[in-house]
Design brief:
This protein is mainly α and 290 residues long. The protein has one domain. 71% of the residues lie in helices and 2% in strands. The chain is built from eleven helices and two strands; from the N terminus they run αααααααααααββ. It has a two-stranded antiparallel sheet. Strand 1 and strand 2 form a beta hairpin. Helix 7 packs parallel to helix 10. The protein is globular.
């Protein structure tokens, strides 16, 4: 997928991994569209634009896997990296697949298992913004500042594993920053904003180092190396702006709803209180969202 054009001539077995990636992208996209169709058949609203966004994300995986891409080897690699590791995760998360799954599944074991998974401790750690950023941007530092990128050319299983990590880490980072789907493990805007800034800085520094120094074990032409580094640098900036826009929009909408609820309350928005039977003291509500 991502390393198909880093060196001339594909490694044996790479065609199989590319076929698996294409088939997986098609199946996931069909499953999403089927779930959305199920909602609409029972007269539940689901925006059509989310279907379109998810389809573009699925097509992005297919295009990055087998489609023609511009540039020389390293530039082509960076275009693929931008698609699979940044654009595709953003589009898929924007389509809210977890929310769709919860609404489409009938009450039963499958739905309960999905809810239990979302509330589990491992998922809580995976969507912890600093850890998700470390897996995403830290993985890129390992990829480009060790001989890993060169080794992946000769080992199809390693090539497939790195590709899977790039996509999965991008998804986790996007989920952790945007927090669009209903999960119990939520972090405030300050935490997510600071993480986004730190991750963007680390990504930009890596791109600047690649502008002048090729990854270990590779020998890209200087012009190709600089062009690829610029794609990484400015593409990362675009994604950060898109993520920050989503975070700000969600925060603004949530704040507006909270303010409207306070204005509609007869007590002028003050926290409700009651006397506890045992002590006669006032007991205020905690305000915790369940």
């Amino acid at each position: 997928m991502i390393f198909a054009h880093v060196h001339s001539g594909p490694a044996p077995g790479r065609g199989l991994t590319e076929l698996i990636a294409v088939v997986a992208a098609v199946l996931v996209t069909v499953a999403y569209l089927g779930a959305a169709r199920r909602l609409r058949r029972r007269s539940d609203a689901w925006p059509w634009w989310r279907d379109a966004v998810f389809c573009v994300g699925g097509f992005g995986v297919i295009w990055a896997t087998v489609g023609p891409l511009p540039g020389r080897p390293f530039t082509t690699h960076m275009v693929q990296h931008m698609i699979v590791g940044m654009a595709v995760p953003f589009l898929l998360v924007l389509a809210r697949p977890f929310t769709l799954a919860l609404r489409a599944l009938a009450p039963g074991p499958a739905r309960r298992a999905l809810i239990a998974l979302a509330r589990s401790r491992p998922v809580a750690w995976l969507v912890f913004p600093p850890l998700a950023a470390l897996m995403d941007v830290g993985g890129l530092w390992v990829l480009y500042r060790t001989p890993l990128i060169a080794a992946a050319r000769h080992e199809p299983w390693l090539h497939a594993l790195v590709n899977a990590h790039v996509l999965a880490a991008g998804l986790l980072f996007t989920v952790a920053i945007c927090q669009l789907d209903p999960v119990n493990h939520r972090w405030n805007v300050a935490m997510r904003g600071a993480t986004l800034l730190a991750a963007g800085a680390a990504h930009g520094v890596l791109a600047k180092t690649l502008y002048s120094v090729s990854p270990p074990g590779t020998a890209f032409a200087p012009t190709d190396l600089r062009t690829g580094a610029q794609v990484m640098y400015y593409g990362g900036d675009l994604l950060e702006v898109a993520l920050a826009t989503v975070v700000a929009a969600v925060w603004y909408r949530a704040s507006g709803r909270t303010q409207q609820r306070r204005l509609r309350r007869p007590d002028g928005g003050r926290e409700p209180c009651a006397l506890t039977p045992a002590t006669g003291r006032k007991a205020h509500s905690s305000g915790q969202v369940t």
